TrEMBL record:
<dbReference type="Pfam" id="PF00903">
    <property type="entry name" value="Glyoxalase"/>
</dbReference>
<dbReference type="InterPro" id="IPR004360">
    <property type="entry name" value="Glyas_Fos-R_dOase_dom"/>
</dbReference>
<protein>
    <submittedName>
        <fullName>Fosfomycin resistance glutathione transferase</fullName>
        <ecNumber>2.5.1.18</ecNumber>
    </submittedName>
</protein>
<feature type="domain" description="VOC">
    <location>
        <begin position="4"/>
        <end position="115"/>
    </location>
</feature>
<keyword id="KW-0808">Transferase</keyword>
<dbReference type="InterPro" id="IPR050383">
    <property type="entry name" value="GlyoxalaseI/FosfomycinResist"/>
</dbReference>
<dbReference type="InterPro" id="IPR037523">
    <property type="entry name" value="VOC_core"/>
</dbReference>
<dbReference type="InterPro" id="IPR029068">
    <property type="entry name" value="Glyas_Bleomycin-R_OHBP_Dase"/>
</dbReference>
<dbReference type="GO" id="GO:0004364">
    <property type="term" value="F:glutathione transferase activity"/>
</dbReference>
Length: 138
């Protein structure tokens, strides 16, 4: 039985550039580095950057993205820091909770989000998506 998400690996075209982005700008903790990669962490997240010469820097056209949590108090300062660093925004927020959608140096779609599953479900109960059903425990 699965017990959780173990780690997330992102293919990158330049390890040093990506390491700087995730460590210096997003403030993930560096755990280890090597010639072709790095391990970084946040509480509950193990992120691997892996050098891949096939990585295209153009963002995918689909909605797949990776969201990071942060507190409401920290949100404005975080967004300001990203904008000051000329980080590209890829979408406007259209859902519950404050969110900023942005790209990493390799075009991976990321999100900084204030809220959690419980707050999202509460908002959806108030205004459900088309065809939405809820599966509550009895």
């Amino acid at each position: 039985m699965l017990t959780g998400l173990n780690h997330l690996t992102l293919a990158v075209s330049d390890v040093d550039r990506s390491l700087a982005f995730y460590h210096e700008l997003l403030q993930l903790r560096v755990e280890a580095t090597w010639d072709a990669g790095a391990y970084l962490s946040l509480p509950g997240l193990w992120l691997c950057l892996s050098l891949d010469p096939q990585r295209l820097s153009a963002p995918a056209v689909d909605y797949t993205h990776y969201a990071f949590s942060l507190g409401e108090v920290d949100f404005p300062h975080f967004v300001q820091r990203l904008k000051a660093a000329n980080v590209q925004q890829w979408r406007d927020n259209r859902s519950e909770g404050a969110s900023f959608y942005f790209l990493d140096p390799d075009g991976h779609k990321l999100e900084a989000h204030v809220g959690d599953l419980a707050s999202r479900l509460a908002a959806c109960r108030f205004k459900p998506y088309s065809g939405m059903r809820f599966y509550d425990e009895s």
